[in-house]
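Extended Data, record Nucleoid-associated protein, YbaB/EbfC family
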Amino acid sequence: MPDMDELLDQVRKQTEEVQRIQRSVEAMEVKAHSRQNEVTVVLRGDGRFTSIDIDPRALRQYDARNLSEIVLEAVNNGLQKLAEASSAKFAPVIESAKSIEA
């Protein structure tokens, strides 16, 4: 059985790793599109959107209601991509924590 100092050292190292990964996630940029690429969004790892670009043809082709649905599609796609990328970055720490518990 590991002693208390070893456990505390492991916790400290994991905490530092989580903080490093969190900074990495916050620095990420994710780009996503609507299904037919009428709208492109870019968001940062902290969840802030840095741009939303709408194809000028979409402005002529769709009414406001349909265009808003397309924008929401792109935004939700971006949030999903961000969640997947964040999970992938944290996966090693989660697996490491599981092995310590076992």
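Summary. The chain has a mean pLDDT of 89.
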